[in-house]
Design a protein that fits this description.
With about 325 residues, the chain is an alpha+beta fold. Helix content is about 15%, strand content about 25%. It is built from six helices and 13 strands. About 40% of the residues are buried.
Length: about 325
């Protein structure tokens, strides 16, 4: 699964379910509360900043952190903690403070329970480029064990040679089709004292040859499937929702466009209408596009970004 490659963004204030959120960088941010996790239903989908969600990577969604950035998440019940790459927006249900990946939930010990009481600490901005898997794995601290000296104490800021301007919108040509990946080995048992090298080896070792889910086809943007010969925005968007990927146990998705000016609103409205949808008024100038139940909105989201609403995203509830 490709790593990085998204956009560096903080974003403007936005509104979800009647509540305003104000993205910003907050050095020293520490908050406790309930965390949840999301997995196979979103594996291979676009994140809020244009990266690709990998359920086997240590990543997370947060309502206001800069994207991408790093945060340390600690399970307050067990003491286990790990750093995650924040590259998505959410959650917005039950006042939860963070939504982590399946792998992060596994390492923090609450994958089976579904939720956990956690402490979230902002660490710093993350680089756009490269694979930070080993860095994040090395930050793992088993509960009830002596902390690993990973050289990254809580709160340290991480330097990056990120470009001054946002990265361009990702295109299908940016990546080659992914090879089926084997499932990662399970995290070390809580209480085991392991070195950084042992942790990395344990993570890199294949386990049983089980196959990871294949990323879903996303049509025009970031597609691993052959392109349709049909040309033109109307043709592409007109068939978009007739070729969706069913998401088990998934409700209706929506694209939060945010507060936009009149000209941009007209452009987004045309895109929505071409796909047989409409803009909905969220109040105070914020707009969204509701999608049919079970549909995959990544293609339409990519067109919304291209039209100029680059801070639009699909919330992870």
């Amino acid at each position: 699964m490709p790593k990085g490659g998204g956009r560096d963004q903080t974003g403007q204030p936005y509104k979800v379910r009647g509540k305003w959120y104000y993205p910003k960088e907050e050095p020293g941010y520490v908050k406790t509360g309930e965390a949840s996790w999301y997995g196979s239903n979103f594996h291979g989908r676009l994140t809020a900043n244009g990266e690709i969600y990998d359920m086997y990577h240590l990543s997370a969604a947060h309502p206001t952190f800069p994207l991408p950035s790093y945060a340390r998440v600690t399970n307050r019940k067990t003491g286990a903690s790990v750093m995650v790459r924040v590259n998505d927006r959410g959650p917005y249900m039950h006042d939860r403070v963070m939504d982590v990946s399946s792998k992060a939930a596994e390492m923090l010990g609450f994958q089976r329970d579904g939720i956990a009481d956690v402490k979230v600490e902002y660490v710093g901005r993350a680089p756009l480029e490269g694979d930070d898997t080993k860095l994040l794995m090395a930050s793992y601290r088993p509960g009830d064990a002596r902390p690993i000296d990973d050289g990254l104490p809580t709160g340290v800021m991480i330097a990056s040679n990120r470009p001054a301007n946002p990265a361009p919108l990702l295109t299908a040509a940016a990546f080659s089709p992914p090879k089926p990946a084997v499932a990662r080995s399970t995290a070390p048992r809580r209480g085991d004292a392991m070195s950084v090298e042992d942790l990395i080896k344990a993570y890199d070792a294949p386990a049983g040859g089980a196959m990871a889910p294949i990323p879903t086809s996303r049509g025009l943007a970031l597609s691993y499937a052959p392109q349709t010969p049909t040309r033109g925005a109307k043709a592409a968007l007109g068939t978009l929702l007739n070729d969706t990927v069913a998401l088990s146990n998934a409700g209706s998705e929506r694209i939060e466009v945010g507060v936009i000016d009149r000209n941009l609103r007209e452009k987004i409205s045309v895109l929505a209408m071409t796909a047989g949808l409409e803009l909905s008024d969220e109040g105070d100038g914020a707009v969204a596009i509701a999608l049919p139940p079970g549909s995959n909105g990544d293609d339409l989201l990519a067109h919304v970004w291209k039209a100029g609403a680059r801070e639009a995203f699909i919330p992870r509830d």
